[in-house]
Amino acid sequence: MPELPEVEALAQFLRDDAVGAVVGRVDLAALSVLKTVDPPITALQGRNLTGARRFGKHLAIDCDGLWLITHLSRGGWLRWTDNPSATPPKPGRGPLALRVHLFTPDAQTPAFDLTEAGTKKRLAVWVVADPQDVPGIARLGPDALEVTRPEFGEILAGTTARIKTALVDQSLLAGIGNAYSDEILHAARLSPFATASRLTPAEVDALYEAMRAELADAIERSVGQEAARLKGEKRAGMTVHARTGLPCPVCGDTVREVAYAERSFQYCPTCQTGGKVLADRRMSRLLK
To answer: Is Amino-acid biosynthesis there in the keyword field (predicted)?
Structure first.
């Protein structure tokens, strides 16, 4: 799933390459992704694209006061094309969900596509006058890169959730998902099962610094790849996430995995749990 660094990279790409263009035709290839009807998506046509920004993991495109907002879900992406087909796409089961044609000041006619692999489209799109009209944005907590250390401490002190759960709860802290929470916890040398409100001040300090460093580093890598032209390999710079069975690059211990529901997380026993292997819910319903 695209998280804060990838969505920030896409917003930066649009600020560099799309701001100043005029929105032309908007092709909706998957009706199910559109979550609003008023204003209609055709209201974007003829408007100047004036900005792009991120709200948590939502990508927001400002079209002269009317916002096109998307949540890319687990497999979505924004892809830029310099020479889009002039023929409107046929609705179907392909990856294309939405195409926005543009007219640039230098008389070019590029487009950007919102795409998602698979037949089921979880990707969502809203057209709103105010980003706060999107329910997921209205519920967001402070942004992970904007929250202060005192605010961060208060957030953790106010929840009895495990720290892994707290980091990915968008109502507590916006922008972090499964992958980067694994990396942040590994960098901070904390167990995913540690209770957020029981962390010591020193542990909160370590977690806060790890969060800022991991996200900033990932943004730098993602922006350098011109994200909308080339979807970078998110896992390339990761130490534990999606590396089950491989050696930890810090200590050499084997990276382990815990699965739950439809997801899993990875951690290093030596770096994070004092050598203890955490119980996997596939093997036991009791987490110790």
So the answer is: no
Q: How far apart are CA 12 and CA 16, in angstroms?
A: 6
Which residue range is the domain that position 183 belongs to? 149-272
Location of structure tokens 């924004």: 78
Domain membership of residue 286 (yes or no) is no
Q: Tell me: do 83 and 174 sit in the same domain.
A: no
∠ Cα 99 101 106 (to 5°): 150
Query: Are residues 8 and 127 both part of a single domain?
Result: yes
Q: What is the CA radius of gyration of the chain?
A: 20
Could you tell me if residue 179 is inside a domain? yes
Q: Which tens digit of pLDDT belongs to each residue from 5-60? A: 999 999 999 999 999 999 999 999 999 999 999 999 999 999 999 999 999 999 99
16 with 128, same domain? yes
Tell me the pTM.
Answer: 0.92
Residue carrying structure tokens 């489209």:
121
160-212 confidence digits (pLDDT tens): 999 999 999 999 999 999 999 999 999 999 999 999 999 999 999 999 999 99
Closest among 41, 42, 52, 43 to 7, alpha carbons compared: 52
| Residue whose token pair is 């968008």 | 170
- 189 located within any domain: yes
Q: Which residues contact 63 (CB under 8 A, 6 or more apart)?
A: 23, 44, 47, 48, 49, 50
